[in-house]
Specification:
two-stranded antiparallel ribbon; alpha/beta; eight-stranded mixed β-sheet
Length: 306
């Protein structure tokens, strides 16, 4: 089957290669010439503009948008809406807010163009392992592109989960759960690292937990890789970003009145990793000093104690 891939970053490029390996004809577009060359070397055809991309595909066309959420996705889909024809399908596979799906579907639908929102999980390992695909959209649009979805996913890793918006909604919650799982692993390994009297080998523990343990998971496998002696773990700064979907999950829980304390706290801990908690912690120490005379730690300056 033919596919146009818009965005040839780490995810888009690997997805292109996976589809090429399974016999699909992929035309890739990216603003970067180096990105286009990378997939061309793997057998993809490439285009230097969206107009060229559309011209190289036979109707009815399928185009997968795999660019950052927000303006890049919005601009890409709007531009494609001007170029495509009735019967074509646009797939948004990025980390878009699910609330954007219905407006996209409505705008494209006025020209008879279908819209599919595909929550995509797998990261840089997806080329080898496949991508878990949580897909939303009208049945007709999804069925047109299903051969691509099946080949991108591992066996059992694809489902049409509901109407337009459902795919990105499920992916949003997926990422919120991911935040909580990662935080639990981080806290557990930190606690074991603090038990100096046992001199625990954290890499060894991560390794054995992968076999038979009730907490085994792919994230644990990645923790085992990170804790290897040659991984460079000690050089990593403790600054943790968030992609946006964790925030959306927490906001959605508030709006729907659903308690989500673990996901909420894990999001806040990411904020705290960026030193946003320093001022609050200084306030806490100062208050304990004021009401109870508790000792405080003073920062050391070059001229002595501040």
């Amino acid at each position: 089957m033919q596919l146009g891939m818009v965005g040839l970053g780490r995810m888009g490029a690997n997805m292109t290669v996976r589809l090429l390996q399974r016999g699909h004809d992929v035309v890739g577009f990216d603003l970067g010439e180096a990105a286009r060359k990378q997939v061309a070397d793997q057998g993809a055809r490439t285009a230097a503009s969206l107009e060229e991309l559309v011209s190289l595909l036979d109707a009815p066309r399928a185009i997968w948008v795999m660019v950052p959420a927000g303006n890049p996705t919005d601009q890409s889909i709007r531009a494609l809406g001007e170029l495509l024809s009735a019967g074509d399908v646009v797939i948004d596979g990025g980390n878009s807010n699910y609330k954007t799906a219905a407006p996209y579907a409505e705008a494209l639908g006025r020209k008879g163009v279908g819209f599919v929102d595909a929550g995509t999980s797998g990261g840089v390992w997806g080329l080898e392992n496949g991508y878990c695909l949580m897909v939303g959209g009208e049945k007709e649009a999804v069925e047109k592109v299903e051969p691509l979805l099946v080949d991108l996913a591992p066996e059992g890793g694809y489902a049409h989960v509901g109407p337009v918006g459902a795919g990105h909604f499920v992916k949003m919650v997926h990422n919120g759960i991911e935040y909580g799982l990662m935080q639990a692993y981080a806290e557990g390994f930190e606690l074991m690292g603090a038990a100096k009297e046992f001199d625990l080998d954290l890499h060894e523990i991560a390794s054995i937990w992968r076999y038979g343990s009730v907490v085994r998971s792919w994230l644990l496998e990645l923790a085992e890789l990170a804790l290897r002696e040659d991984s460079g773990f000690e050089t990593i700064e403790p600054w943790v970003d968030d992609s946006g979907e964790g925030r959306w999950t927490v906001q959605e829980a508030v709006e729907r009145g659903v308690p989500a304390p673990v996901m909420t706290e894990s999001l806040y801990r990411r904020f705290e990793s960026r030193d946003n908690g320093d001022f609050a912690n200084r306030i806490l120490a100062a208050l304990r000093n004021q009401f109870g005379g508790h000792a405080v730690e003073r920062a050391q300056a070059s001229g002595g104690t501040k």
